[in-house]
Design brief:
With 495 residues, the protein is α/β, with parallel strands linked by helices. 64% of the residues lie in helices and 8% in strands. Strand 3 and strand 4 form a beta hairpin. The longest helix has 33 residues. The two termini are 32 Å apart. The C terminus is likely disordered.
């Protein structure tokens, strides 16, 4: 992992227009972070300030050391749902200790290049992840859409109108920011009976302070926090890497996933040392940031810094921001996040790809657990892939005066070995040639199958010769085959 100062500087300062866009986008994100951070604190069973301080620390830190410019990280529901039992049984100080350990694990994951696991996540799983998250974002707004006065619906409608119509007139200021300001002015000026940010929970006063978790440094403490820390680290990295891939696609740019893993770890350690809970990347806030013009590290830093300013200086005014304004923004995020093309693609794409996408969506929405949905999608993708490769396997039997020749075509691995073994019949004594020029051995299951075939044919009195190995298959056979390899010939290595 090399550091390029020139690239890093460009990620911060993208010219006057880019800096202005990053600052305005960061302000919008900061306002949208407040109710979510409070809600996630409630889910975790902790004081609202713990979620808010975490969002401040994580956003500002990840802007400095993360690998995906423009992506927003903060306290999230995916991590919050995991820490409730630890907080109830042992207290909030153990949460801080677990968050530090979570960060250390994520740094180790970055050093070990565990970001490469993203190579096993198919496009169908990513699409399902995105669609499920869009649905969850919308469902999270339902409490603000039920049992409220008509004033709330009117403000939401006005907010959506501003968000979608203002860009047709001007893009000088992000339309979500204008919607929040206009709806706040109307709500406060007319004293409308609508829910406000302050109704979500009491906002903290003052600045967060540095403090080491007050827990004993013993093996017993490690035993208590390790299971939670491991789960938090895994879920946080999974959601962060998936979100990074989505932002890559939205911005048509690339990011350093290894640095992002380590950066997430460093951000979580800083959050815990300043009285915050763990977190990870947030696709909803990242979409708000990108669609508002935020592309650089400055936008994420401003989101954290402005959130701190709001809490420390403008707390009473922030508490009066109407929830309908933020609901309108999140509905926009939900609509923009959902992959609408995936509906039409259900008929155009292969059925297996569509099934993987739908299963990922269904599991995430049913369990409210993003990691379970992605895991289900990845496993199902693996099953479908193995079945597809297995169907591309064939054995042709040719008999002539020189003896019997079996021509094997395709991939020989754990999913195809059963068909491989059954393709060989009972031969009388005589020469048998197994031609694997058009085949490839992938694992010890394939080697073991060849062992059994050769041994069985020789027991029947046949003289067996295997020809046509490519170099990789020959190396695998030499290392793991148990039968006498006399007569086995290495064929030309295919190019």
């Amino acid at each position: 992992m090399t550091f390029d100062f020139a690239t890093y500087r460009r990620q911060w300062f993208r010219g006057a227009a880019g800096i202005r866009a990053d600052i305005l986008a960061g302000i919008v994100v900061a306002l949208a972070l407040i109710p979510e951070a409070i809600g996630f604190s409630i889910i975790a069973g902790v004081d609202p300030r713990i979620g808010l301080y975490a969002s401040v620390a994580i956003a500002m830190t990840i802007a400095l050391i993360g690998g995906r410019p423009g992506m927003v990280s903060a306290a999230t529901a995916a991590v919050a749902v995991l820490v409730g039992p630890l907080v109830r049984e042992h207290g909030v100080e153990y949460l801080f200790a677990a968050t530090i350990l979570m960060g250390l694990i994520q740094i180790a994951a970055g050093l070990l290049r565990l970001d490469r696991v993203m190579q096993f996540v198919s496009r169908s799983v990513i699409t399902g992840f995105v669609n499920a998250l869009a649905i969850l974002i919308f469902l999270a707004q339902l409490p603000q859409l039920t049992g409220v006065s008509w004033h709330s619906y009117a403000l939401i409608a006005l907010g959506l109108a501003i968000i979608y119509l203002l860009p047709r007139i001007t893009r000088a200021v992000p339309s979500p920011l204008v919607a929040i300001l206009v709806l706040s002015a109307i709500s406060i000026g007319l004293a409308l009976p609508v829910n406000t940010v302050g109704d979500m929970g009491r906002l903290p006063e003052g600045l967060p302070s540095f403090a080491w978790p007050q827990v004993p440094l013993t093996l017993e403490t490690l035993r208590i926090i390790l299971p939670t820390a491991l789960t938090m680290a895994a879920v946080g990295l999974l959601e962060s890497l998936l979100t990074a891939q989505i932002v890559d696609d939205m911005t048509d740019s690339d990011s350093d996933k290894r640095q992002e893993c380590a950066g997430q770890g460093g951000a979580n350690i800083v959050a815990a040392l300043f009285g915050g809970m763990g977190g990870c990347a947030m696709i909803g806030q990242s979409v708000i940031n990108v669609t508002s013009g935020g592309r650089g590290r400055l936008s994420t830093f401003v989101a954290g810094a402005f959130l701190l300013f709001l809490l420390a200086v403008l707390g009473p005014w922030v508490g009066r921001v109407p929830m309908p304004a933020l609901v309108a923004v999140m509905i926009m995020v939900s609509i923009g996040t959902f992959s609408w093309n995936s509906i039409a693609n259900l008929r155009r794409h292969p059925p297996t790809s569509s099934i993987v996408m739908l299963v990922t969506v269904a599991v995430v929405v049913a369990t409210r657990d993003l990691s379970l949905g992605v895991l289900a999608g990845v496993l199902l993708s693996g099953v479908f892939f193995a079945a597809k490769v297995q169907r591309m396997f064939a054995v042709e039997r040719v008999e002539d005066a020189a003896g019997v020749t079996y021509r094997v075509t395709g991939q020989i691995f754990f999913a195809s070995v059963d068909r491989f073994r059954r393709a060989f019949g009972v031969e009388a004594a005589g020469p048998v040639t197994i031609d694997v020029t058009a085949a490839h051995f992938w694992d010890i299951s394939g080697v073991d199958a060849l062992d059994k075939i050769v041994v069985r044919l020789r027991q029947q009195g046949a003289t067996v010769t295997v020809i046509g190995y490519n170099r990789a298959s020959a190396d695998l056979i030499d290392r793991f085959a148990r039968h006498d390899k006399t007569g086995v010939e290495l064929g030309a290595v295919p190019h």
